[in-house]
Design goal:
With 492 residues, this protein is an all-alpha fold. It has one domain: Amino acid/polyamine transporter I. 63% of the residues lie in helices and 1% in strands. It has helices at residues 7-14, 28-39, 43-56, 60-84, 91-98, 101-135, 167-182, 184-210, 233-244, 264-293, 305-310, 318-350, 369-385, 388-416, 431-445, 449-473, and strands at residues 152-154, 160-162.
Length: 492
């Protein structure tokens, strides 16, 4: 028997209010900016040049469109689920309703890779950009306090120093966790400001750079293939789409805030699809201007391709603006990732699969403060003591795995609950979810082998916790929540 959480129970939980529940304060605008906050990070400023120089040339704009379409398949599935089941928990909740408790646990545990380790990864990069920003004002943090113990740095005098811990990364994690405890409305206000700042810088770059575009840089628009798959030509455009696909990751974080949305059935689809649309337009315009200012070959092996493009304009001050935009971008990504992770553990705890401490709600702020505090410590440990390469590689595979299960869940739910009201319906089912599964699985297969090993180890740890704790404390298994019986097989 599969222990699935009945849809009517989920809908009842979504309508609950009062003590022990989350406060509904987020408007549709807040949800859109939350999605933009999670999507637009420094990836826009680095992946664009990488994909242009190595794969697609100026046709990287097409790569962004293809990447957006791939994300849209999963996004449409998320939007349907979020409108049907407007409750915190994202893919975990959707899996519980469609594929049962065991699969729900797998995806809930997997989402730690996307949200918690995602926040750790971004905080480490935030630390490096903070150092660059402080250098503009002649300030410096001792390098030992900006690296993990596994990393070294050569100083100007040639002396090599070992890291102690990444203190700035811990600082931003703790500060944003305390902000989240203070309340969703306050967190949304800060996120809105950060999103406005970074989008403003992106728009300034597009507006200022447009007038200095050199049309000759667009010829050839799709460079001839070198003879190897993925190196220019149309195969390069599609390989480029695989590279920039990860610049779109983050829109699913909107679905974790469903229980704090004022009108989730309307607001969740708007937040998910709206943030994807806004970011796609910005990405296409940004990449068009960047490859127009400088030849795509100039971006080869460059960690800062935008700086190369800005050199083609008389406005050197844009360099500082880009650093500010990256800092704002990273900060809003960390904020949304921490919020999403705490809400997932809140929901899992309410179901009995995790200790009750994770579903404790602050009496004044109505936020899952104990979950926030736990992840302030947990994420800080990874940010302080683990190199960015190790945590970063685990984020992508966890995210794509979640996308796959959500797409499968839509097809299951259309069969099991065809008459349930759907304020938003994903179009062209089953084509859309099948396409989402195929594209996401293709991305997973392309990841390095050691990433799969780490995923297997992480999942093994999760299975031990499930069979020794979660299974014994599950409210559904205890009969607290009624479970519909599996249908009897038809008579021969």
């Amino acid at each position: 028997m599969r222990f699935k959480k009945p849809l009517d129970v989920l809908l009842k939980e979504a309508g609950e209010s009062g003590a022990g529940t989350l406060k509904r304060t987020l408007s549709s605008f807040n949800l859109v900016t939350m999605g933009i906050g999670a999507i637009i990070g420094a990836g826009l400023f680095s992946l664009t040049g990488l994909a242009a120089a190595n794969n697609a040339g100026p046709a990287v704009v097409i790569s962004f469109v293809i990447g957006a379409i791939g994300c849209a398949f999963a996004g449409l599935c998320y939007a349907e689920f979020a409108s049907m089941i407007p409750i915190a928990g994202s893919a975990y909740t959707y899996s519980y309703a469609t594929m049962g408790e065991f699969v729900a646990w797998i995806i809930g545990w997997d989402l730690v890779l996307e949200y918690a380790l995602g926040a750790a990864t971004v905080s480490i990069s935030w630390s490096q950009y903070l150092i660059k920003f402080l250098h503009l004002f002649g300030l410096q943090i001792p390098p030992q306090w900006t690296m993990s113990p596994w990393e070294t740095a050569a100083q100007a005098n040639g002396v090599v120093v070992h890291g102690y811990m990444n203190l700035p990364a811990v600082f931003v994690i703790v500060c944003l966790s305390l902000l989240l405890i203070r309340g969703s409305r306050e967190s949304a206000f800060v996120n809105n400001l950060l999103v406005i700042l970074k989008v403003a810088v992106v728009l300034v770059f597009i507006g200022v750079g447009w007038q200095f575009i050199n049309p000759s840089n667009y010829h050839p628009f799709i460079p001839d293939n070198t003879g190897k798959f993925g190196e220019f030509g149309w195969s390069g455009v599609f390989r480029g789409a695989g590279v920039v696909f990860f610049a779109f990751i983050g829109f699913d974080a909107v679905s974790t805030a469903a229980q704090e949305a004022k009108d989730p059935k309307r607001g969740m689809p708007i937040g998910i699809i709206g943030s994807l649309l806004v970011c796609t337009v910005l990405y296409v315009l940004f990449s068009h201007v960047m490859t127009g200012l400088a030849n795509y070959k100039d971006f080869k092996d460059s960690a800062a391709p935008v700086a190369i493009a800005i050199e083609k304009t008389p406005y050197a001050w844009l360099q500082e603006g880009i650093i500010v935009a990256i800092l704002c971008g990273y900060t809003s990504v960390i904020l949304v990732m921490l919020m999403g992770q705490s809400r997932i553990f809140f929901t899992m705890s309410k179901d009995g699969l995790l200790p009750k401490v994770f579903s404790k709600v602050h009496s004044k702020f109505q936020t899952p403060y104990m979950s926030n505090l736990f992840f302030a410590g947990f994420v800080s440990l990874f940010a302080a003591f683990v190199p960015v390469r190790v945590v970063g590689e685990m984020v992508s595979i966890g995210t794509l795995f979640a996308f796959v299960l959500v797409c499968i869940g839509i097809m299951v739910m259309r069969k099991s609950d065809p008459n349930t009201p759907r304020p938003f319906r994903a179009p062209w089912v089953p084509f859309v979810p099948i396409a989402g599964v195929v594209i996401c699985m293709a991305m997973m297969i392309s990841l390095p082998g050691d990433t799969w090993i780490r995923l297997a180890v992480w999942m093994a740890i999760g299975l031990v916790i499930y069979f020794f704790y979660s299974k014994k404390h599950s409210l559904i298994r205890k009969g607290v929540v009624s479970v519909p019986k599996d249908p009897e097989p038809p008579m021969a």
